[in-house]
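sorry for the late reply, my laptop died twice this morning and i had to redo everyting from scratch. anyway the thing you sent over, i finally got around to it. pasting the sequence first so we're on the same page, its 409 residues, then the predicted structure underneath. double check i copied it right bc i was rushing
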Amino acid sequence: MSELALKAEKLDAADELAAKRAEFVLDDVVYLDGNSLGALPVAVPGRVEDVVRRQWGELRIRSWTEGSWWTAPERIGDRIAPLVGAAAGQIVVGDSTSVNVFKALVAAVRLARSAGPERDEIVVDATTFPTDGYIAGSAARMTGCTLRPVTPSEVPGALGDRTAAVLLNHVDYRTGRLHDLPSLTAAVHAAGAVVVWDLCHSAGALPVGLDEHGVDLAVGCTYKYLNGGPGSPAFLYVRADLQDRFDSPLPGWNSHVEPFGMRSAYEPAAGAVRGRVGTPDILSMLALEAALEVWDGVAVDAVRAKSLALTDFFLECVETYVPDGRVECVTPRAHGERGSQIALRCSPTLGSARAGGPPTAGEVMRRLIERGVVGDFRHPDVLRFGFTPLYVGFADVERAARVLAEVLA
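ok and here's the structure:
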């Protein structure tokens, strides 16, 4: 057994989260793609069967009240709240991340203009996940704003009297770079603008501190580090003191103060309920609720500590096993700038596998998956490895790096 394999054994033996692995449906595959889709928690299949067979099959319409379906969006929101540093009553679950980004960004412009009608610019992270950029462009057109894409490091210098809203990613989806939420939020506020944070790659992986840092609005998905399942509903955070002024561009009967009054005039309900639109997706909503049970007794700080230890150890193994010059880490080494993934760029000098040269990045990932190490590939040359501390162990990390070296050799 190699030195690093022995080290992995010792680290796994001392891991305070190791027992959580048994709460997931896993096999002998090293699963390092939880930053795209989290593993299945063991509690979910039974809960979904109950929802389908008993609640839907037997209780039917009565489950909206007897099964507490109606209150699920806020109840599950309160379950997510401590994982992102928020008090209860500020998060509602429902719709997709994209829809919630749209709600939040248009509402942010409206909030800013209520204090300064001259504000007509939306600043967006130029390196953002494409959909966020598409939605920011649409929101700008709808609100008569100019769209200004800048990198997160350029945001403070780009802010001014015309800035209405700023849409930022907490963690860069390609590189795993963690952006400075506290300082960027403070800079946006100093300029009199409203900030919207996309937490898709940080919720469930590291402390966020929404309340502590005075974040205005935030959105996030639940199918990555929160393990809610494919297409599980996203969440929307609206800070408590902004809720009475939160003007959603998608008002619906579910967010009406009197949803069953069927009145033609819209009057929003109080609180986070304003973020609701239409009938919630109950099957995936309650699957998510069951998935969140794995967080019982888990501190986000402990998850963060293990995440950093896993990624540190992965880099150590890669540097030991992989031949020099074959990959380059594009994820920041500094802990304060790193999310819970490692992105490796394959050397640009690599030739095409079809031409008889070394494998390209896409081919490398395909071969890794064939050998039981699952990550993913981002065009043109980035291998992404996501580390979910609740079920990934140090032996997994050592094996992944060793197989990577073998594939590259």
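The chain has eleven helices and 13 strands.
thats about all i looked at so far, will dig more tmrw
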